[in-house]
Design brief:
Distance between the termini: 17 Å
Number of helices: 2
Radius of gyration: 13 Å
Strand content: under 5%
Largest sheet: none
Shape: elongated
Helix content: over 70%
Order of helices and strands: HH
Length: 60
């Protein structure tokens, strides 16, 4: 996956939004696991978002 964002302000905004979504998914996973429910979808989404975030941060 390759994400190129030349504008530092746009990149910072996207990083912030991805981090917020990761935090939300972590909360969903925690709640699901505490309740004994599967959290497969959220875990896959977390993996994807984490990869995107890592790529964006490397471009800084």
């Amino acid at each position: 996956m390759l994400i190129l964002i030349d504008n530092p302000e746009h990149r910072a905004e996207l990083i912030s939004r991805v981090r917020a979504r990761i935090d939300c998914e972590i909360e969903e996973v925690s709640e699901a696991l505490c309740e004994g429910r599967p959290a497969t979808r959220s875990l896959r989404l977390l993996e994807t978002l984490t990869k995107i975030l890592a790529e964006l941060e490397v471009q800084k």
